[in-house]
Amino acid sequence: MTQSSLAREGTITPEMRVVAEKESLDPEIIREGVAQGRIVIPKNVGRTFSVEGIGAGLKTKVNANIGTSGVQGALDIELAKLDVAVRAGAHSVMDLSTGRDLMTTRRAILHHSPVMVGAVPLYAVAADLVDAGQGIEAMTASLLLESIEAQCAEGLDYITVHCGVTRQAVARTHGQDRVAGIVSRGGALLAAWMERNNRENPLLEEFDRLLDIAFRFDVTLSLGDGLRPGAVSDATDSAQIQELLVIGELGRRARARGVQVMIEGPGHMPLNQIAGNVMLQKRICDGAPFYVLGPLTTDIAPGYDHITAAIGGAVAAAAGADFLCYVTPAEHLCLPDMDDVHQGVISTLIAAHSGDIAKGVQGAMDRDRALSVCRKELDWEGMFAAALDQDLPRRRWEENRASEGKTCTMCGKLCAMDAHNSLRRGCPS
Ligand SMILES: C[C@H]1O[C@@H](n2cnc3c(N)ncnc32)[C@H](O)[C@@H]1O
Ligand SMILES: Cc1ncc(COP(=O)(O)O)c(N)n1
Ligand code: MET
Ligand code: SF4
Ligand SMILES: [Zn+2]
Question: Domains (ranges, CATH) in the chain?
Fold first, then answer.
C-alpha cells in the first residue's frame, strides 16, 4: 500500500500525522491532500526517518543536490555535504552522483540521511555504460527498468524520471530557436538514446511497469523536466510546454494507480513569466506538487546563481510552487563544495520562507516576529536563536562588537533602536 492508496481508502497514516504535526494542521487535511494528489509524502516503505509533506497549503520545502561526478568527489566528502545540508535546514537531498561505485555512494547516503533521499536512476545506468566504454545508445529499456527497480529496492524515497521527453517534444527544441538546447542531463541522455535507436522514450513506453515498481515501494515519482529552458530566452517555449502536457497526463495515470507524483519545472526564466508558469503547471497537472529548479531569473551571474535562483524561487513559491531545488554559487562552474552547499541551502530557505509569508502559510511570520521583537530590544542572543543561519550572525556581531553598550558598530551611539526604546520608556538618553 502507498500513502496515496491508503489516503483514498480514508486511512490517516502515521506519516500523515507527523506531517500534520509539523505543519500545525489537522491530519484530515493532510489525508485529503494526499488522496487528491495535491500533497505527497515521499518515503520508501523500507526506510525510517522523520517525513515531510510537499504540496498545497504546506510550507515550501527545500532540496539539496549532492553526489560525485565522473571527475570529482569522494564518498566521505559527499557524506559531509549531506551533513552540512541537513544542518543548514534542507528537507531533502538528491544523490546526483555519476562517479564510480554509485551503489556504494547511494547506499551510504540512504543509510546516513535523516531526510528524504531522491535520485535520478538513469544516471547510474549511463555512468556504468560509459565506464564500460560504451555510450548511452547501448542501454535497453529492460536494463533501465531493472536498474530503476533495484534502486527503488535500496530505499530511494523519490526518483526523477524524465518521462515527458518524447520524440515530438524533442523535435520542438530545434524549432523555436532555442539558445541553450537541452540542459537537463537526464533529458539530453534520453534524447540521444531516442535519436540513435530511432525509438520512443522507454520511460514513457514502460510507464505502467514504472508505476508497478513505484507502487510496490511507495516511491514518489518526480516527473522530470528534461526539456526545461536553460536560458531565459528559451523560457515557456513550445518544447517546455509540450513536455508539461505529457507529464500532466502521466501524473493522472500515476494517481489512478495509487502512486504519489510530483512535477518538475524550470529552470531559467524571466521574473515576469514565473507566476504564469506556476499557474499553468497547477492547472494542467490537477494541482500536483510543483518541484522547481530555481528558476534563475537571469543568465549573466555565474558565481552568484544561488541569488538568481533565490529571486526566482521566492516568486515561484509565492505563486504556489511547493518544493525548491537549491542552486549553489557553484552552478554552471563546478561541483559544489561544502561551503557552496551551505550557501545554497540557506539562500533557498530564504526564498521558500519569503514565498510562505506571501502565500499566507499558517504561522509563517511567527519566526520573523520573534526575531524582530528581539532586534527591537537589542537582544542579540534572541536574534541569533531565531535566525536562519545559526553561526554567521553571531560571528559577524562578535567580531565587530561595539566597545560599549548593547548596540552594534553600524550606528554605535546613534543606534535608532536604542534611541526609540529610550523615548518609549520616557527616560532621557
Ligand atoms: C539539475 C541540477 O543538478 C545539479 N547537479 C547535477 N549533479 C550534481 C552533483 N553531483 N552535485 C550537486 N549538484 C548537481 C546541477 O547543477 C543542476 O542545478
Ligand atoms: C528540480 C529538479 N532537480 C533535479 C533534476 C534532475 O536533473 P536533470 O534534469 O538535469 O537530469 C530536475 N530535472 N529537476
Ligand atoms: C546547463 S548547466 C546544468 C543545469 C542548468 N543550470 C539548468 O538550469 O538546468
Ligand atoms: S557546462 Fe558543466 S554544468 Fe553545464 S551541462 Fe556541461 S558539465 Fe554540466
Ligand atoms: Zn543553467
Answer: 3-359 (3.20.20.540), 366-425 (no CATH)
